[in-house]
Amino acid sequence: MNTPAVRILPTFNPSEGHNFIEPSKRINEGEDVSEFLCSKAYVDIMTFLLQLNRSMIPSKLPDGRVQTYPLNSDAVEYSAPVRQLQQLLSKLEAILSEAPPDTGPRRFGNISFRKWYHIVESRASALLEECLSPELLQTPSSDRNHPTAEAELKAYFLGSWGSAQRLDYGTGHELSFLAFLAGIWKLNGFPKNSPGVEERAIVLGVIEPYLELIRTIIKTYTLEPAGSHGVWGLDDHSFIPYIFGSAQLSPAIAESDLTPEEGSLPEVPEPTGVAKANIVDRERKVNMYFSAVGFIYDVKRGPFWEHSPMLYDISGIKTGWGKINKGMIKMYNAEVLSKFPVVQHFPFGSLFSWDRDPNVIPPPPTLHTSSASQARSNNTTSSGTKAPWATPSPAAQGGITGTAAPWAAARGPTIPEALRETGPTAPTRAPWAGPQPAGRQPPGNPGELTTKPPWAK
């Protein structure tokens, strides 16, 4: 029997005692991020992310054929828990009609979002009870003084929709939804199928509809990006569709193969296609990466290289979607999980424990684990300071050169050894860490103004 190359997120054994606790904030300053990167919660989140990512890579079938997993794939069947979560998302979308956008003049952050969020918050328990199994939600603690599993799941559910206070949405909220799904997994809320089967259903049947709902919410209430790096970020709001979308286009693998680190599935669009509106319009219907880029086209105007220089730079990678996928995972580790402004609001309970994982080696201190004030000062435009990933753009330099890929230098913590795939030891430095290939210079006028979303009047 073939052994899968990726670790699977363990589930609870109902026969063993367990106490749930109300999740609480533990990341209060920059130094706490280093503790988070050593925690059981971090390992569980990365395990689940890698598990989902691998499931989206095309499969080599025993008869020699290749099975791909595009959006709306007929090859993916949705289990009852996945359909219940789809029902939950539909109910949340329906609540939008109860909180129409305020008509008053406002550049960003329509205040009616607060009404929508407060409705969801007030109905959260009822919504979860309607759409999740009672056995899962009411999983009891061994100690009657402790809450049921619902207390923990509800915290991550409510953290998934943006901030009613700040009127924003970002990758920290996306992380909360990932934790919500991982919590259901740990509680045995999904059927135990062959490796990858249920994971694909989660990605295509729940995460993609979640992302579509989030895009609708963002456009409806003009939510601001939370903790955005501006032009130097990968995307104003989301990250995981770029991981799973690049996996969809990577070379096919057998169950026991390692995740590919380069190459592409035959006859898929080249990475350069993200800068071509007609290709994006075609591919967004079948691929999560292009779907995310398509949303950027929906809300931004101007040259793609100018408003999305990171994505433009990544599109110049010649060695295929497998390499992009590996780079996206490294970047998520460094730019999302290792950043104080992103993870500071993530709460910790028993499903995602603050306790230290005994197998994790503490990462060295880096700019990624700086305090909030340091992180903000690094993002200011004051003389001599810039974000650590911010190689000057064409507009900033006054010349026309490609921006550096975000993974073009060794930085931030590495993925723990325990989470790496079995097999030959990988090189310590990504092979794409060289300069941008010749000829990938952005077109257009380097002096053009930065573009804005169409609602930014």
Task: Provide the descriptors you would attach to this structure in a database record.
457 residues, mainly alpha, two-stranded antiparallel ribbon, two-stranded antiparallel sheet, 40% helix, disordered C terminus
Total count of helical runs of at least 4 residues:
17
Strand residues, percent = under 5%
The helix/strand class is mainly alpha
Shape: globular
Mean pLDDT reading: 83
Distance between the termini: 60 Å
Poorly predicted tracts of residues: 368-412, 422-439, 444-457
**CA radius of gyration:** 21 Å
Strand order of the largest sheet: 1-6
What is the number of E strands?
A: 6
| Helix residue percentage | 25-40%
The ordered string of helix (H) and strand (E) elements is EHHEEHHHHEHHEHHHHHHHEHH
Largest sheet: 2 strands, antiparallel
Structure notes:
By secondary structure, this protein is an all-alpha fold. The protein has 17 helices and 6 strands. The chain has helices spanning 30-36, 40-55, 80-94, 112-131, 134-137, 149-158, 171-186, 197-221, 240-248, 277-283, 288-299, 304-307, 309-314, 321-335, 340-343, 372-378, 394-397, and strands at residues 24-25, 59-60, 66-67, 168-169, 224-225, 347-348. A two-stranded antiparallel sheet has the order 1-6. Helix 3 packs antiparallel against helix 4 (112-131), helix 4 (112-131) runs antiparallel to helix 6 and helix 9 (240-248) packs across helix 11 (288-299). The relative contact order is 0.17. The model is unreliable at 368-412, 422-439 and 444-457 (pLDDT under 50).
